[in-house]
Amino acid sequence: MSSTSIHAWRALAGALLAIPAAATAQSTTDATVAAGDTPSPAEAAAPPAAEPATAPLGTGDIVVTARRRAENLQDVPVAITAFTGAALEVRNIRDITALDGLAPNVKVVESGSNTTTYLQIRGSVTTNPNPGYEPAAAMYIDGVYIGKAVGSSIDIAEIDHIEVLRGPQGTLFGRNTLAGAVSIVTRKPSGELGGTLKAGIGNYDRRLLQGSLDLPAFGPFSVTLAGLWSDQNGYIRTRANPVPQIPGPAPTVKRLGDKTSYAGRLAVRFRPSDTLTFDYSGDYSRLKTTPMLGVLQGIGAGGIFDPASPAYVGVPLGLYVQTERRPRDYYGTGGVDGAKLFEGVKTWTHALTGTLEVGEATLKSITAYRTLKWKQQLDLDGSPLPLAAAASNLDYKQFSQELQASGKAGRLFYTAGLYYFYDDGDSNNPQQFFGTTLERLADFNTDAYAAYAQVDWTPPILNDKLVLTAGYRYSKEKKRVLRGATAGGFTTIPFGTRASRTFSGSTPTFVAKYDLTDDINIYAKYSEGFKSGGFATDASTVQSSITPYDPETVDSIEIGTKARLLDGRLRVNLAAFFDKHKDQQIAVFQPTSAGFVTLVTNDARSQINGFEAEVQATPVDGLVLSANAGYTDAEFREFFAVVGGPNVARDRAFAFVPKWIASGSADITLLKHDDLQINLAGDLKYTGRYAALPYSTVATDDPNIFSTQTDSQTTLDARIVASRIPVGSGTIAVTGFVRNLFNEVSRTAGIDFGQAFGNIVTRNYNWPRTYGLDVSFRF
After folding, report:
1. Residue ranges of the domains in the chain?
2. What is the DSSP letter of 700?
3. Please, are residues 284 and 275 in contact by the beta-carbon 8 Å criterion?
4. pLDDT > 70 fraction of the chain, expressed in percent and rounded
5. Checking DSSP bridges between strand 490-506 and strand 466-487, what pairing results, if any?
6. Which pLDDT score, from 0 to 100, does residue 29 have?
7. Beta bridge partners of residue 574, listed in sequence order
8. How many whole angstroms separate alpha carbon 342 and alpha carbon 362?
9. Which SUPFAM superfamilies match (predicted)?
């Protein structure tokens, strides 16, 4: 570990001791929901929130459900960042991509796609967008697990709040929460007449329409309708072939990054009695976009595209290399067989939650069904030459059923449940290189079962300040795959090739929390998590397609403190974690008599340590300051890149894992007079540099590290809000905003295609400065 890391750990240890000691006398609490108290469904269904005049990140007392019951965020011994509905609305956050950098040690990457995100939490991320692979961090919407990363960047109407849980959540959330989970909670019907209407414009032809309507209750029924439409042009223009003597097709689109989104939501609450509630939600989302493809920025010296190399194949690809930072032009033309560049995803989700209160116990049933259709056509080489292209077609559906029981019995709080999950996907992901098409067909499905229980016990000692938690989950799942593949008309995987495998495992949790005062607690936690095993659904040989890989597991230790100081004007949350990853899933090369094939194996293990700090302060009325920082030290201990080969752990880097992620925000009230309030606010975000290619080498003499290393990035977003302006029976708010105020330029992703394809390098960059104006009416 570096000397910088050692000093950082010492500083954190001192802070963990100093914060409680500095304010032992503080004992005031203003929690809206006491720890463990579960609000009734009637209390949970609040009318639309008052129009936000100020919305700093994490402001106020926030009720979260990180442990499957309602608790005040400051009382939960879990590293969690929560974003209120007001904070999300004023920042136009409608999906998880906008959370990038706003929580410590959380990185959200759109690598050449507007429909799929890579969610990295505490150093763990799944970097293959193929839907056959499982995410390392799970996403939930109203308690419903979202099975694939594809479609995770869609807009969602009527978000009430978002919780970002860091660290393994294997006991209460289960599979694929190795790194953590993002829980999106939507607003429930209030039964009172009210609504909102919002319209916005901006540069790059940005347009936005968004609205919601709460209908008055009729009998035991309450209904909310919500919808949104947004449209914006991309900033990269496609250009005709600039080399007229070389024939090539014309561009199939005008720009990269064009994005049109639709979302609709119907929420119905049926409450036949004070103890029984049913909540139904139907959600529709559709996204049409042109992909943000990487721009060609380099070819490998001595490779097949280097005119000075003996291996030169006569293709003048170097004529299309762009050397400037954040190029505005793109010379690629089409996808497989010249198809129009395109990305599109469409989802339908139906969920029904039934809640029955029996004394101090709550019984809950969560049933959900979700369908997803995904299509894309990509140009990979960034030139008008028909060298490399890819496409994806996916038809996916999932069903889940969960039964929960929770409540209080004496000194015990308990949560227990049974869980079932099924999914099925049909995919075709062809690739085309030098005119030869590789067709890759896969039908995959999963049957997963789990049982879990967790108990919080307050022993009759230490004035009831100590709480001990123990939890356990047993999971079992069966994965099946049906494959077929052809290359250039030759069958590489016979159609009908089948394989199946059953995996099982347990994920315990143990926590000890001690309240130093009513406002300060410390905790220590041990937890385990796993990422599901499976089959490589994008493999191109029989061996690699039927060879299963095992689940990846993590053993995690976390220590932390949460403090509310100075009568609630200062909040400080600190956490340190030590994660040991075993059976890490990696892509390796296996030598065979026919050459090398790619396999997904468990031939790696690693140690990931880090710490996180979140601070919020209200030094004077009308000024709210908040900041967070996260540090991650990720090192492979074993990494076998070739089956039977040497351990190359010292020369391998983690993808999308910067050492530092930090952000800060300030919100100041400039004017408050009668019904008018004006606020000026800003968000500053810093992300350190990282390797953008999975398992990039970190050897300093290897040129690949320079082609796939991103830049550190510092961006400033600002906004001014005039709110609570009375108009008729409602109020109006006007928001002017700018993102990336200083037009910072930085690489966000990069791919080196390797020696077999001439080491060509493509890169993605962040968006330039954008700005706009939103007007909302609330009644």
Report:
1. 3-778
2. T
3. no
4. 89
5. antiparallel
6. 33
7. 561, 613
8. 47
9. Porins
- The mean pLDDT of 303-323, rounded to a whole number, is 90
Whether residue 324 contacts residue 378, with contact meaning beta carbons closer than 8 Å, is answered with no
Which pLDDT score, from 0 to 100, does residue 302 have?
84
CA separation, residue 747 to residues 474, 613, 689, 751 (Å): 42, 26, 9, 11
Residue bearing tokens 């067909």 = 441
Integer CA distances (angstroms), 460 to 34, 200, 534, in order: 19, 57, 46
CB 168 within 8 A of CB 529: yes
Count of residues in the chain: 779
Segment 474-501, tens digit of pLDDT: 999 999 999 999 888 788 899 999 999 9
Distance, CA of 433 to CA of 473 (rounded, Å): 46
What confidence category does residue 698 fall into, taking pLDDT thresholds of 50, 70 and 90? low
Strand-strand pairing, 159-166 and 180-186:
antiparallel
pLDDT 10s digits, 701-733: 555 555 677 889 999 999 999 999 999 889 999
Which range has the worst mean pLDDT, 422-436, 485-499, 668-682, 694-708? Answer: 694-708
The residues, any chain, with a CB within 8 Å of residue 113's CB and separated by 6 or more, are 129, 153, 291, 292, 343, 376
Split at pLDDT 50, 70, 90, the class of 7 is very low
Which amino acid, 140? Y
Alpha-carbon distance 422 to 409, whole Å? 34
The whole-number pLDDT of residue 268 equals 98
Label residues 398-430 b or e (16+ Cβ within 10 Å = b): bebebbbbbbbeeeebbbbbebebbbebbbebb
- Tell me the pLDDT band of 551, cut-offs 50, 70 and 90: very high
Q: What is the bridge-based pairing of β-strands 180-186 and 137-141?
A: parallel
CA–CA dist 182, 163 (Å, integer): 6
Contact yes or no for 144/121 (Cβ under 8 A)? no
CA–CA distance, 653 with 634 (Å, rounded to integer): 8
What is the residue-averaged pLDDT of the chain? 87
Q: What tokens does 130 get?
A: 């193929």
pLDDT of residue 489: 78
Query: Cα angle vertex 442, ends 438, 445, to 5°?
Result: 165
DSSP annotation of 75 reads: G
Measured CA to CA, the distance from residue 163 to residue 145 in angstroms comes to: 14
Identify which of 101, 212, 208, 210 has the alpha carbon closest to the alpha carbon of residue 164: 101
Q: Give pLDDT, residue 754.
A: 75
Q: Give me the amino acid identity at 187.
A: R
CA 10 to mean position of chain CA atoms? 31
Least confident window among 466-480, 547-561, 623-637, 649-663: 649-663
Task: Report helix, strand or coil for 606.
Answer: strand
Name the residue among 777, 667, 652 with its Cα closest to residue 719: 667
Identify the three-state secondary structure at position 313.
coil
Strand partners, 64: 71
Neighbours of 279 (CB within 10 A): 23
Q: Which helix (H) or strand (E) holds 442?
A: strand 436-457
Q: What's residue 211's pLDDT?
A: 95
CA distance 194 to 213: 6
- The CATH superfamily label for domain 3-778 reads TonB-dependent receptor, beta-barrel domain (2.40.170.20)
Nearest Cα residue to 95 out of 282, 255, 283? 283
Q: How far apart are CA 323 and CA 509, in angstroms?
A: 51
Q: How far apart are CA 580 and CA 560, in angstroms?
A: 18
